[in-house]
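Justification of resources, computational component.

The compute hours requested in this renewal are based largely on the per-chain cost of generating structure records like the one below. Each record pairs the submitted sequence with a full structure-token output. That output is archived, and it is also reused by downstream analysis tasks.
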Amino acid sequence: MSENRLTVQELLDPAFLDEVSRLQLFARRVARGGRPAEQRSRHLGAGMEFRDFRAYTPGDDFRAIDWNIYRRLGRVVLRLFEELEDLPVYLAVDLSRSMFQGEAPRGHAALKAAFAIAAIALQQHDRVGVFPFAEDLELGLRPTSGRGRQFRIAEVLAAAEPRGRTDLRQAMRRFTSFGLRQGLLVIISDFFDPAGIEAVAEALRGLRHRLLLVQLFRKADLAPSLSGDLRVTDCETGEAYDISATREVVAAYRQAYERFQDGLLRAAQAKQAGFLRLDVDENLVEQLAAVLAEGDFA
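The structure output for this chain reads:
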């Protein structure tokens, strides 16, 4: 499968990096406990951006008292400022064997999308970790920050090799076992789990992180141009099946795909997750830019 691997040079292509450098990734709120950076925290304290007042209680910092209000109204209140902290970004990239089949495999698009999101996060001083998965999930790179880490992340992604079949339930159980600080978990996959869309929804249900689901697709997924008697092969198991692609069979397939797509969208909505579909045959950065321009999706 080595011929289907991306190189570090492809990920660090200057034109690609230039496109990515213009994007920004914002989370609605960041869990407390990080370093000063560019994301908003749930914690209100001694930051730079004013957010609110609250009444003074014993033990509060005297330096936060608004003495102008005290002189005018005789009330002792504190000025609260929004603290900016780093956002932990965890990239879970599907490396199942089916993602690396054929020309321009969607696995390449997954790795490029992961690197683009990593580069955006790093330039905002956020921490980025890489967690490849298929039948299980592994720690590819511990969460770390600094623009200089781009090369290391590119190395880890370029070294990724196809493996096994997708098992999102097991992968997410493994991810949860790491006990990582709450952050943004980005799952990049086609979400074709052999256990079905119900297993995908179950895998997402127990996650305590904010979620962004990035679905890799092709237009032919919904409308395959198939006809006649065919032998199809399961990309992950290697099992072959003989089928007759009649009009009725193709129509039944499209209905099944639409049910799958509807189930994935409902699973995302149930978790209030961001949901992004990337056409692997189109420019990935332009698609990311179109979604990020809409604002607070993560």
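The longest helix spans residues 247-270. Residues 26-48 have pLDDT under 50 and may be disordered.
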